[in-house]
Structures are given as structure tokens and as C-alpha cells.
Amino acid sequence: MLPDLILELKAAIYASAEIQEYWVLNLSAKQIIVFRYPQNGEYATEQKIEAGTVIPLAFPDIRVSVERLFG
Fold first, then answer.
1. Are 62 and 53 in contact (CB under 8 A)?
2. Are 25 and 1 in contact (CB under 8 A)?
3. For all residues of the chain together, what is the average pLDDT?
């Protein structure tokens, strides 16, 4: 599927640039995909979150509500 290929390509580019965290909003699935901790051109973790809150690495005092983003 083309969107998955684009997602993987962008993740590889961002990880190679050592961007510590990359978020993707999947509107059709109502989830946030969070990539973190780049190592050797790829992210060490990928987490799909459909409920609750996400705390950005760069701003640990901020909480982002998944429900509010898709509400």
C-alpha cells in the first residue's frame, strides 16, 4: 500500500537526520503513530496509540489527548 511505503520512507529519512521523535496522525484509524529513538537510520520504537495521552520528548510538561485530537 502506497501510504505505508511513504510512512516508512519518511521515518527512515527522519531517523537518518536523528530527529528524536516523529508523530503521524492516522485519521482513518483515529490513532497516533509515534516513532522514537533513532538508531542507525531507523527508529527503535514505534507505538500506535488510540486512547489516552502522549507526552512529547521535547516538551515533557505537555500532554496531548488522543481523544481530543480526533474528537
1. no
2. no
3. 94
**Contacts (Cβ under 8 Å, ≥6 apart) of 9:** none
State if pTM tops 0.85: yes
Nearest to 35 by CA among 18, 52, 59, 50: 18
> Which of these, 19, 21, 23, lies nearest to 57 by C-alpha position?
21
Grid cell digits, residue 48: 500506535
Burial 6-41 (b: 16+ CB within 10 A, else e): ebeeebeebbeeeeebbebeeeeeebbbbbbebeee
Taking 70 as the pLDDT cut, the residues of the chain under it are 1-2
Residue pair 33/22 in contact by the 8 Å Cβ criterion: no
